């Protein structure tokens, strides 16, 4: 066994104080996201963890890519019949998490989820590389399959079928928009006295509070 007690670092790159933050959390997210996107040590600034609660009451977390954000919410795409899709359809809630270690920052977002309009899912689907379109059509996401060859055979069949034509978007594949009602911004600070600023939606206004680290 390895003792990890002494594996720690000092957080001292930035601060998060009330006099410098935006009144709207989406604008604060935008500022931090742009910082992450422009940092050469961040490979995928839009990579985020999504946690949903399954039937046994246990959360399940996986990484996906954020594809768009607006004042209304955060948009990502998936198979609606996947484990995450089934959980979302039951609870209509999820927690999104961004972590950028080199900036010593993380963002935690609690949100209500709903499917986006079909034409928007169509537009994004057909903007993807054809290989990605075929992959989405081939994979029965989260279902048990016999082996990898099962997928490769189906992929070869669809490649031949749609060699000279457009791949239709599967009906069970599309986008969700996560509409936030709570967003926490975490900035690492020395001595573990980290900055935690939380925005909570009250009616139509955002209430800003500081949490103890």
From TrEMBL:
Gene3D superfamilies to which the protein is assigned, alphabetical: Electron Transport, Fmn-binding Protein, Chain A
Flavoprotein listed as a keyword: yes
Keyword Flavoprotein included in the entry's annotation: yes
Manner of cofactor binding, per the entry note: Binds 1 FMN per subunit.
Binding site for FMN: 62-67, 77-78, 83-84, 106, 141-142, 186, 196
Similarity annotation: Belongs to the pyridoxamine 5'-phosphate oxidase family.
Name by which UniProt lists this protein: Pyridoxine/pyridoxamine 5'-phosphate oxidase
């Amino acid at each position: 066994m390895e003792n990890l007690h002494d594996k720690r670092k000092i957080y001292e790159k930035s601060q998060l104080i009330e006099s410098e933050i935006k009144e709207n959390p989406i604008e604060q997210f935008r500022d931090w996201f742009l910082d992450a996107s422009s940092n050469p040590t961040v490979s995928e600034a839009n990579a985020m963890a999504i946690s949903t609660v399954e039937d046994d009451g246990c959360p399940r977390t996986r990484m996906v890519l954020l594809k768009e954000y607006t004042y209304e919410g955060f948009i990502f795409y998936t198979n609606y019949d996947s484990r995450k899709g089934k959980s979302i359809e039951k609870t209509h809630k999820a927690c999104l998490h961004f972590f950028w270690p080199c900036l010593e920052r993380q963002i935690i977002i609690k949100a209500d989820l709903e499917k986006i309009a079909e034409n928007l899912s169509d537009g994004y689907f057909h903007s993807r590389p054809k290989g990605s379109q075929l992959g989405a059509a081939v994979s029965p996401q989260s279902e048990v399959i016999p082996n990898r060859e099962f997928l490769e055979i189906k992929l070869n069949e669809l490649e031949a079928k749609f060699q000279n034509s457009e791949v239709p978007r599967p009906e069970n594949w599309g986008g969700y928009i996560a509409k936030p009602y709570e967003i926490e911004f975490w900035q690492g600070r020395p001595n573990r006295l980290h900055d935690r600023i939380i925005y909570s939606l009250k009616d139509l206004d955002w209430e800003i509070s500081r949490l103890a680290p």
